[in-house]
Amino acid sequence: MAGRAEVGCSDEGEGEGEVGWLDDSENAQVAALLAAEAPSSYAVPGLAGVRRWAGVRAGGELAAVAADAWSAPTVGLLAGVATRARHRGRGLAGRVCRWVSRELVAAYGRAALMVDDTNPAAIRVYERLGYRRRRVAASRAVG
Q: Which Pfam families match (predicted)?
């Protein structure tokens, strides 16, 4: 999905922490969240091209994350989106994605992401943020 991220809503949620870039010292927490909630994520801390992670805390724990990963000079790529199961349904993924999308548009002029057709919940979040679908074909070598 690609978009200009025309996202004007507030990043503040009632009783939730602020969204922001995480320190490298928090990479282990990001990795643990991804392992538990999004084990097939292509973006993980420390992988080449994964620049930085943003997140939001709820109840003192890292609740949702997203990365600036594999961005190009004219488009920032949102990746590695995940929310702890116990914090789903509270809009945290949307807040993190909105915030990262704004940062990517500010830095690169545009923002994009990839999402599987089998993830309708994520697609709804991204479409609410202003992303629009562009179908692409991809393959993976097995063996």
A: FR47 (PF08445)
pTM of the model: 0.84
- CA pair distance 111, 129, nearest whole angstrom: 11
Whichever domain contains 54, its CATH number is: 3.40.630.30
Structural domain boundaries enclosing 13: 2-128
**Using 50, 70 and 90 to split pLDDT, how confident is the model at 10?**
very low
Residue 61 within a domain: yes
Which residues are CB-neighbours of 127 under 8 A, at least 6 positions away? 1, 133
Q: What is the C-alpha to C-alpha distance for residues 79 and 66, in angstroms, rounded to an integer?
A: 6
Chain mean pLDDT for the chain: 89
**For residue 77, is pLDDT > 90?**
yes
Residue with tokens 């890292």: 62
The one-character DSSP state at 58 is E
For the chain, what percent of residues have pLDDT higher than 90?
A: 76
H-helix or E-strand spanning residue 27 = helix 27-37
How far is residue 132's CA from residue 79's CA, in Å, rounded to a whole number? 16
Helix (H) or strand (E) holding 62: strand 61-69
